[in-house]
Design goal:
By secondary structure, the protein is mostly helical. It contains 33 helices and five strands. It has three domains: about 160 residues, P-loop containing nucleotide triphosphate hydrolases (Rossmann fold, 3-Layer(aba) Sandwich), CATH 3.40.50; about 170 residues, no CATH class; about 130 residues.
Length: about 650
């Protein structure tokens, strides 16, 4: 059971209301030229709205609706020509005008040929500044073609070449060169005549995927719409993320003066071209609940199932009041599904479980919701295919994947802890899921090297003593996050679950199990980095020789040992080793700042100093500045606040 991720006329989002509104607007006055923008982020459902608009015109004899995908034609030829020729070609084909109006067709095609020859001639833009090619220019094109094909047998069929040359020479027999305003007017007349011959009162052109194009093709498509095709009896509906189009405008006009403001100009440019903008709103909580339910139930039962259709009808009624959850509650769903409710019971439970975090994490984007569900279902299917499907429960996998997708630092901690636990559990989750404050944390024992395929376990002889009371900064950070606490409340609880099968099925992102068993000789490196400054000062060359994945693995283990120390009033064991490791492996700077940001506000002033040679990248230096500002406001820790304030002053002077 996987969910198709493409545009559809089967409406699960109530976007049909937008489509009907647009159709009503563009048909209320067919003589009027109009442009409508359907805006929204990628995956919001813009293409599906266009599909619904196109379907609405299927039975309109006097209205022709044609579709043009700007992205598909990008790079094949000039975008302006592609749009003009695409519109004309579909009009001719769908109305059989080749036989019914051959002379009108010939007139329009001839004017398009002028534009093509201008492009062949080497870059005459179709703007009011440049004009169209002169006879001399066309002559140069003909000469170029003749010269290139001097040996027809070598390059192509001679008959075909002669047709190209004759076609270009035929343009020379026309009247003298026209400037753009005159040529555009002639094209409009010819195109209007073509609409008359086709018996059309209105032509509707749907332009899709414009925001996927590179800036130049995107602007050229808009210019073609404005200069050549937008005339009486034509309506354009453009589906695009307006932010991407504004970006294209700014890239197309990079030298705008500061007084104009490139962002303001881009907005004004777009508003001039698009008269009526519609923005598809993000899904709210109730809408996300309805959407996920329909996706999962529809995939299980099929779109043609009678009970599923009844559920869709209930959903559409509920969507009329999207702020009210009672219209699509459990009772309404059960009543619509009837006897089939038992067949989708697991899907309904899964929906209740994941929707709260999925709605906020995806910001109500339908494509992101669908991609999450597909990834979830695909991993479940993969576990079945690998033979351990019985060990993977969908609710547990879904909860873990919500952390993986929306709280990656939490998932990383869970993965590392579970991979190194003899029972595959993350015991810290018990405190988090029970909602109590962290009590006593056991400091991680030193690692020992194991052979290939062996689990790294702490030897009994060197087991660390259990401290009386220490602060666990990981748990403290978890409990300070509303998002993590909301995730912890989701069912089912995970603290007593062996998570190793789930780590295996999610290892396409990071293989925690392999890291735990393959630390091998690197365990000795970890132990040395946990020593005093003098012991680690000579490790630079050895650490530089580590591959990036090895260095990241070593840092993960050192970081967990540091955070497990509990007492941060003075530099904990391992901090000197972490410093040297990051200095020799600069890609770890972000991970180091993540660790520093995790340390409690009760930490000593040592966390402020000593990082100038380690934190060198601009982005990370800005992050460290933010940490200093936070520490300078530590009212319960005057020593830390004073040190951070002094450091800020020094940085300001430097």
């Amino acid at each position: 059971m996987l969910l198709a991720d493409n545009e559809t006329t089967f409406d699960l989002l109530n976007n049909d209301a937008i489509a009907k509104t647009i159709v009503g607007l563009i048909t209320e006055d067919p003589e009027r030229a109009v442009t409508v923008g359907v805006h929204g982020d990628w995956g919001a459902g813009k293409s599906s709205v266009l599909e619904m608009i196109e379907a609405s015109f299927a039975d309109h004899d006097e209205t022709l609706c044609i579709k043009f995908n700007a992205w598909r034609f990008q790079g094949l030829e000039d975008a302006k020509i592609a749009l003009i020729e695409g519109v004309v070609t579909q009009l001719i084909e769908k109305r059989s005008l080749t036989t019914k109006a051959a002379d009108a067709v010939k007139d329009v095609v001839k004017r398009i040929d002028w534009l093509k020859v201008a492009r062949m001639g080497g870059g005459l833009a179709f703007t009011a500044m440049s004009g169209l090619p002169s006879p001399d220019h066309v002559g140069a094109v003909v000469g170029m073609v003749k010269g290139f094909f001097a040996d027809p047998a070598k390059y192509a069929d001679k008959e075909q070449i002669n047709k190209v040359i004759e076609g270009a020479e035929g343009l020379l027999k026309e009247k003298e060169s026209r400037r753009v305003p005159q040529e555009v007017e002639e094209f409009r007349k010819a195109f209007d005549e073509l609409l008359n011959r086709a018996g059309l009162k209105q032509l509707v052109v749907l332009i899709d995927d414009l925001d996927r194009c590179l800036p130049e093709p995107a602007i050229e498509t808009l210019e073609a719409m404005r200069l050549f095709v937008m005339m009486d009896r034509t309506a354009f509906v453009i589906a695009a993320d307006e932010a991407m189009i504004e970006y294209s405008v700014r890239k197309h006009f990079p030298d705008l003066p500061d007084t104009t403001g490139p962002r303001d100009y881009a907005r004004n440019y777009l508003e001039k071209l698009i008269q009526i903008p519609f923005r598809i709103p993000a899904l709210g909580g109730v809408e996300t609940h309805i959407y996920v339910t329909l996706l999962l139930v529809g995939a299980r039962l099929g779109d043609e199932d009678a009970q599923f259709k009844a559920l869709v009808a209930v959903a559409r009624e509920a969507l009329k009041r999207p702020w009210d959850p009672t219209g699509f509650d459990g009772a309404a769903v059960q009543a619509a599904l009837g006897a089939r409710a038992k067949d989708v019971a697991d899907d309904l439970v899964l929906t209740e479980q994941i929707v709260p975090l999925l709605a906020s994490g995806t910001s109500g984007n339908p494509r992101q919701i669908k991609r999450f569900l597909n990834s979830l279902l695909l991993r479940e299917r993969t576990a079945d295919a690998r033979g351990f499907g019985a060990a993977v429960k969908l609710p547990v996998l879904a909860k873990l994947m919500l952390a993986e997708r929306f709280i990656p630092t939490l998932f990383d901690e869970i993965g590392l802890a579970s991979a190194n636990d003899p029972d595959g559990r993350c015991k810290d989750l018990a405190v988090l899921e029970e909602g109590s404050k962290p009590e006593t944390a056991r400091a991680p024992a030193p690692l020992v090297a194991g052979g290939e395929g062996k689990k790294v376990v702490p030897p009994k002889a060197v087991a660390a003593p259990e401290p009386a009371t220490v602060e666990n900064p990981v748990l403290t950070q978890w409990q300070a996050s509303d998002v993590i606490k909301a995730w912890a409340k989701l069912q089912p609880p995970l603290s007593n679950v062996d998570l190793r099968p789930y780590l295996f099925v999610t290892k396409d992102r990071k293989d925690y199990l392999a890291a735990a068993s393959a630390l091998g000789p690197l365990a000795a490196v970890v132990e040395r980095l946990m020593g005093r400054r003098m012991a680690v000062s000579g490790m630079d060359a050895e650490l530089r020789a580590l591959a990036k994945p090895e260095a990241s693995l070593v840092f993960d283990y050192v970081r967990r040992r540091i955070l497990g120390a509990g007492d941060f009033s003075r530099p904990p064991a391992g901090i000197d080793g972490a410093t040297i490791l990051v200095r020799t492996q600069p890609h770890l700077q972000s991970a180091l700042l993540d660790m520093l940001g995790t340390l409690p506000a009760s930490s000593g002033p040592w966390i402020v100093a000593g990082w100038s040679e380690v934190i060198t990248e601009d982005a990370e230096r800005r992050r460290f500045q933010t940490l200093l500002e936070r520490w300078s406001k530590a009212t319960d820790n005057p020593a830390l606040a004073a040190s951070a304030t002094a450091a800020l002053r020094t940085r300001a002077k430097g």
